[in-house]
Automatic annotation (TrEMBL):
Belongs to the ABC transporter superfamily. ABCF family. YheS subfamily. SUPFAM superfamilies: P-loop containing nucleoside triphosphate hydrolases (SSF52540). It comes from the Bacteria. PANTHER family: ATP-BINDING CASSETTE SUB-FAMILY F MEMBER 1 (PTHR19211:SF14), ATP-BINDING TRANSPORT PROTEIN-RELATED (PTHR19211). This is Probable ATP-binding protein YheS. It comes from Pseudomonas duriflava. Keywords: ATP-binding, Coiled coil, Nucleotide-binding, Repeat. Residues 2-246, 310-527 form the ABC transporter domain. GO terms for molecular function: ATP binding; ATP hydrolysis activity. Residues 548-582 form a coiled coil.
């Protein structure tokens, strides 16, 4: 088990843990949560032996094999499948030893190493690596590409696959869902639920935590608190602890009053009925959720647009794609004020293509796209984080789009996104991915959009910011079209789903559980040859060639042994035949030749015993020889 006692951990001037206590038992799946900078990644480094405690103890079994998800890649020339196989360090050592033993023609070493290869499931390693890559969204063609050909997000998927490939007793995963789409997350959940070792993962995806973990560690105020159950259970338990605080009560009542006022005002208006229903749902959850986040640094809203058009967008007979390549056709989509739509669909089906077209980043290849006169789009996508001016501060970014606004008003607005004090004036250059995402959302929220197009808005956001974004979207009166792997966000902010698949965009009548089942059927239809048992039946060709060479090395001495036994058996049988001819002579049984008869019978018994031994050894040698020849045929 993992046992932490009286642990103090400090990084520079910051004390992350002080007198912390924790026990994690073998086989537990544990989620590690806490504010950014609280020390989650440092705790992982401690468990891996890369940090030492400043005080106290951190004990892990010495025999445990630890696998972790790397955050960097330094071997860009490796093929993707080979990079994943590199995760099994022991397997790679055995394979390298086989190459050396084959070059040295060392039969004994080859036999020993092939036994190790079989124990390490080396003959199925290539198939297992490809199955991992397929589950994480890689095509067969992508598996043969260089690591350096992939973007940063796909490289993180390779690092995840490499960690899963490594046999381990303790698996450490830091934000494994950050660069995954919903399809890959559903696959990863199934994989982790069947993982036999001890799992520790850092994640800001509450549904993912609920599905995978059975305990939650909360790192807060330099302490480690272990909660039983998933994230929702943690949230309820912690809410109960905080519910007595006056601050929690006041904040909760203020939010309730705000929502009730909105519901009373707009419930009867058809144009805002959906927003009222969203707030009713949020109100039902409010008593549970809010107290657990009373210390959240985020509190913002999307500023309301002054004017609306109905419809905001109207796309008919749309043919969407890039260059000469059509991805979606025909597409009919009309977005009215108040629409709340979540886009579902397998990886690469065209969800981002649809959003980019609606945002004006791509032109339709055909059909008609009409924009409302008062359309104001707020578009969020990951590539926009890179378009932020690295030398400008959050305040300067906002001043550029609101040059006539008072500075204090802008600072107050940025404070809702947790840019306060000096943080408002720091250059974006050294901001984390989460801080850049918050700034991008702040810029969108300021500009009074009436249509939000959001492509994976929760990437890099922590749990508190995700909740704040969810609440802000529920209060937003405009239309929302969102692609997200965060199922809680989708369930809390959308009223309908569109399915983007097989070149079409159509209504999906079902919930996210129905979509998960649809996805299983879709994968079975799309990849009947390379999924399931057929994929696992693939053999590592490199190991296969090595095995064949090793078998040929073993055949020669075995043939010599069989021939030697056969030759000796023949000699014994010749002696036995001659002796039996002598014993057929009736004169041998006369009384005067009694001693000669006794010796002949004794020799006959010895020869028959020897014949039996040699015959058995010879047959065993032939059986081994036949078995090796059959293996060689299968390996060729």
């Amino acid at each position: 088990m993992i046992r932490i006692s009286n642990l103090t951990l400090q990084r520079g001037p910051q004390r992350l843990l002080e007198d912390a206590e924790l026990t994690v038992h073998p086989g537990q799946n544990v989620g590690l949560i806490g504010a950014n900078g609280a020390g989650k990644s440092s705790l992982f480094a401690l468990l891996r032996g890369h940090l030492t405690p400043d005080a106290g103890d951190c004990h892990l079994p010495a025999s445990w094999r630890i696998a972790h998800m790397r955050q960097e890649i330094d071997t860009l020339d490796r093929l993707a499948v080979d990079y994943v196989l590199d995760g099994d360090v022991h397997l790679r050592a055995v394979q390298a030893g086989l190459v050396d033993a084959e070059a040295a023609q060392d039969g004994n070493a080859l036999a020993r190493l092939h036994a190790e290869l079989e124990t390490a499931d080396g003959y199925t390693a290539d198939a297992r690596a490809r199955k991992l890559l397929a589950g994480l969204g890689f095509t067969s063609e992508q598996m043969e590409r260089r690591v350096g050909d992939f973007s940063g997000g796909w490289r993180m998927r390779l690092n995840l696959a490499q960690a899963l490939m490594c046999p381990s007793d303790l698996l450490l995963l830091d934000e494994p869902t950050n660069h995954l789409d919903l399809d890959a997350i559903l696959w990863l959940e199934d994989w982790l639920k069947s993982y036999p070792g001890t799992l520790l993962l850092i994640s800001h995806d509450r549904d993912f935590l609920d599905t995978v973990v059975d305990h939650v560690i909360h790192l807060e105020q330099q302490k480690l608190t272990l909660y039983r159950g998933g994230y929702s259970s943690f949230e309820r338990t912690r809410a109960e602890r905080l519910a007595q605080q006056q601050q929690a009560y006041e904040k909760q009542q203020a939010q309730r009053a705000h929502m009730e006022k909105f519901i009373a005002r707009f419930k009867a208006q058809a144009t805002k009925a959906r927003q009222a229903q969203s707030r009713i749902k949020a109100l039902e959850r409010l008593e549970e959720l809010a107290p657990a986040h009373v210390d959240s640094p985020f509190d913002f809203r999307f500023r309301e647009s002054d004017k609306l058009s109905n419809p905001l967008l109207d796309l008919s007979e749309g043919r969407l794609g890039y260059g000469d390549k059509t991805i979606l056709h025909p597409v009919k989509l009309q977005l009215a004020p108040g629409a709340r739509i979540g886009l579902l669909g397998p990886n690469g089906a065209g969800k981002s293509t649809l959003i980019k077209t609606l945002a004006g980043e791509l032109q339709p290849l055909g059909g008609r796209l009409i924009c409302g006169e008062n359309l104001a789009i707020g578009y969020f996508a990951q590539h926009q984080l890179d378009s932020l001016d690295p030398k400008a501060s959050p305040l300067l970014h906002l001043q550029r789009i609101a040059p006539g606004e008072r500075e204090q008003t802008l600072r107050d607005f940025l404070g809702g996104f947790d840019f306060r004090g000096n943080r408002c004036d720091e250059a974006v250059l050294n901001f984390s991915g989460g801080e850049k995402a918050r700034l991008a959302l702040a810029l969108i929220a300021w500009q009074k959009p009436n249509l939000l197009l959001l492509d994976e808005p929760t990437n890099h956001l922590d749990l508190d910011m995700r909740l704040a974004l969810t609440m802000a979207l529920q209060e937003f009166s405009g239309a929302v079209l969102v692609v997200s792997h965060d199922r809680h966000l989708l369930k809390s902010t959308t009223d309908e789903f569109l399915l983007v698949a097989e070149g079409r965009v159509q209504s999906f009548d079902g919930d996210l559980d129905d979509y998960a089942r649809w996805l299983v059927d879709y994968r079975a239809r799309q990849q009947p040859i390379t999924t399931g048992e057929e994929l696992t039946d693939k053999v590592d060709k490199r190991a296969q060639r090595q095995a064949a060479a090793a078998l040929r090395q073993q055949l020669a001495p075995l043939k010599r042994e069989a021939e030697k036994l056969e030759k000796e058996l023949g000699k014994v049988q010749e002696k036995l035949a001659a002796l039996e001819t002598r014993l057929g002579d009736s004169g041998l049984y006369e009384a005067s030749r009694k001693e000669e008869l006794r010796l002949a019978l004794a020799e006959q018994a010895q020869l028959k015993s020897r014949e039996s031994e040699l015959e058995e050894s010879w047959l065993e040698a032939l059986e081994r020889l036949e078995s090796l020849q059959l293996e060689l045929e299968n390996a060729s």
